[in-house]
């Protein structure tokens, strides 16, 4: 006959299994996940729901294509038994490829709970341009006006642009000020030859006096000296700016004849800098299976 204490210990696992909610599961027991896009949300219990699929690349890349379905496969554990590593696959246009695919699930009782809520997992994924995508979307590939090519900011280009705009504003202001000053001088009343002026009688070149002396040879009217003309520094500033931009944008400009707008793949949308993207042209793009890899986190 089995003692009562021993029988209770043997029955304990059964009681634990019975007490565990049916919607709680260990990720190590999950072999695969199927996630859907187009606004599909996860299940939730303790915290709010999240999108099943969410692109976390830069906005210009995410807007190119919406992933409809992604399937993730359990590739085994990492540091711990429940630190599951995933490989996720989706069908993408040839211009894009998956990079990272991180699975985020809701811990059943807390973020540290090894059990997660069934249906609470979503994927945050990143995409990148393939070589074909870099040729089709050079503006995205090169990262914009002030990108240094490594995901950072080209501070030299930014500071040069600010300085150039400041010089340009100063030149325009000086031109307007000088033009206004010259216009004010030309509107002043001139003294009549008989000596009478609107301010009263004053000395002048009257009919009884001698004519005013002729201007000195080589002299010019003072009104011309007040008129602003483009000078050396304004020309130098304009030439330097043109040369700088021609050199810094050369890599992007030689691609612009191919496609000036961002457009979108698989859906219509207007381009930022050129032709509108059309779904008819994008649907003709060949598809390929792209795979990304990631780990697990809990919320």
From TrEMBL:
Q: Which positions, given as ranges, span the membrane?
A: 155-177
Topology in the membrane?
Single-pass type I membrane protein
Annotated signal sequence range: 1-18
- What are the start and end residues of every segment in region (Disordered)? 182-232, 244-299
- The organism sits in which domain of life? Eukaryota
Q: Name one GO cellular component term.
A: endoplasmic reticulum membrane
Bias category Gly residues: which stretches? 197-207, 263-276
The record's Gene Ontology biological-process terms are: calcium ion transport; regulation of store-operated calcium entry
Q: Does the keyword Calcium apply?
A: yes
Pfam name, any one: SARAF
Which keywords does the record carry? Calcium, Calcium transport, Endoplasmic reticulum, Ion transport, Membrane, Signal, Transmembrane, Transmembrane helix, Transport
Which compartment or compartments is the protein found in?
Endoplasmic reticulum membrane
Q: Which family does it belong to?
A: Belongs to the SARAF family.
UniProt-listed PANTHER family: STORE-OPERATED CALCIUM ENTRY-ASSOCIATED REGULATORY FACTOR
Q: What is this protein called?
A: Store-operated calcium entry-associated regulatory factor
The species this protein was found in: Fusarium mangiferae
